[in-house]
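ok so I'm stuck.
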Amino acid sequence: MTTIRGPLLVAVSGPDGAGKSSLVRRLSTLLRERGITVVTTHCYGCFLCRSFTVPPRAGEAGDPGGDRRARRASDPEGRGSRRRAAHAFLDAGELAARIAAARLLVRARARGGPAVVVTDRGPLDGLVKFDLPVASRAASVFRRIAGRYGLTLLVETGPETLRGRGWEEIAGPPTVWWARYRSWSRRLPGIAHLDGERAPSLVAGTALERILDEVRARERTAGEPESGAAGDRRHVVLSIYDDADNPAYRGGGALVVGKVARRLAEDFRVTVVTAGRRGGTEDRDGIRYVRLPVGRAGPRAGQLLFLAVLPFVARRIPHDLWLESFTPPFSTSFLPLTTGAPVVGIDQGRSAETLSDRYHLPFFLVERLGLRCYRHLVALNAADGAAIRRHSPRADVQVIPNGVEQRGLDESLLGSGQFILYLGRIDTWVKGLDLLLDAYDRARPPLDLLLAGSGTPAEERRLAALVAAHDRGPEPRIHWVGFADGERKRQLLRDSAFLVMPSRHETFGLVALEGMSYGKPVLHFDLPALRWMRDGGDLTVPPFDMAAFGARMTELSTDTALRRRLGHRAGIAARHYTWDEMTGRYLALAHRLLDSPAAARRPRKRGASWQTTR
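replied:
not stuck anymore, here's the structure
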């Protein structure tokens, strides 16, 4: 949430051919229908770019003047040249002038009402176009302009889509450009990612919702004094060991915490404490990220260090509310004993009983003792909610499931698919990959098996050995394709026939919900934590019955009508799990804990800010 006064400035960014201009037109119409004054401006580069068209690629050596042409958009050798920097300064200056004029115009038209300026290009596009060094002065100018924007909508399309629109012949490989967009988007505030592969009406609807949320957030803070707005807002901290950049995990928990943090940032100051190989802080999307340098100890020791350090960190960061996502192997860190502020424990990683069975160590005793310290707990499913209530009977336990991006269900594709898909973290024992490969080897269903995911180096070596042991035929039928994210992940989900989840332990199974949103059946063991999928397009077998699991894989592989029927049911069920509703319940919980008379009487925690004060 931004505290900038005046009209809301929104950029629609992405490569040419991503549908930016049409999206700007749609948004302009939809916002006017809701009584909001809108001014749009088209920012296609500086006047030199428009007046003297230079091919974005350098010419061939034999072309006239080919050796002297500048690679305006794709020559890495010119990244730090003075001409390139001067061109970038000129481009940034014209962009700043255009948005200043647009803001003056919309102020005059709005006459005090809600107003939005929408540009079909923003600072993000300028940074990608010139590909400047991060520390350069020209890049800092673009970043300062980005600070004036309340929201940047990044329309993400797959490389194949851009190739189909002639992008590669004009500007080079789309994957190179998308790498730049993703790199710079992590360094700018207020970036919202849109799936440009969806129908234009769905993309426009999602973009409209993000803009209206920002408009409402600005209206709520309109009466606050600008100089003290940040200091007067209450501070909420979320802690989680996992992180989207952690190659050993990158699980669903990090995604959920990111969604919750962005929703809480509408009404509170938000800090996310997570693990990393190096310590430090970073501001992204209006949220402060604090990374504890425990990653160098390795995945297992890093988790233990994170649990040990977290109570000391809580004493150094002033906060009004702390949301702790549990971390294996002990799950809890006894955090409520170290702070006077309310602490909400989130059961996204409570696996002490499973790990006790695996390693024959009493992790579960520490977990149960720790649970009794919490007065507020969140479970992701009803079965875990009931178990937590037994271990901590005095706690207020709420069940808040995960969400999924909503997408239109293509009925014509139901039942289709080319392979069986496992998608998730590579953890052979917890995720049951040894059981899956054994069941597949026994049943030999007609479809190939694809494994997508990454894990610790030891787990990846273990999986490679298992695949080699089970795939001995002349033609390989088990394929491990590595980590999949973004468009690659979406493509795997679209092309799969069904998903398998052979886990020995789960707290929710976010990947299953993502598969259901694409109309894909999910085959899994009948674990209590996964019964939220019951009658939602899933098929279950008794826990760890490999013969039954293999038989079901064969049945789903050969029966297209069954996959179509279950896929339709799965797509309908996924519509009941939205990120908006899920994050809204976390926001309501935070307000209930902080707006109560008891919270108002509680003195604010004192102590050093430890790099978190904004």
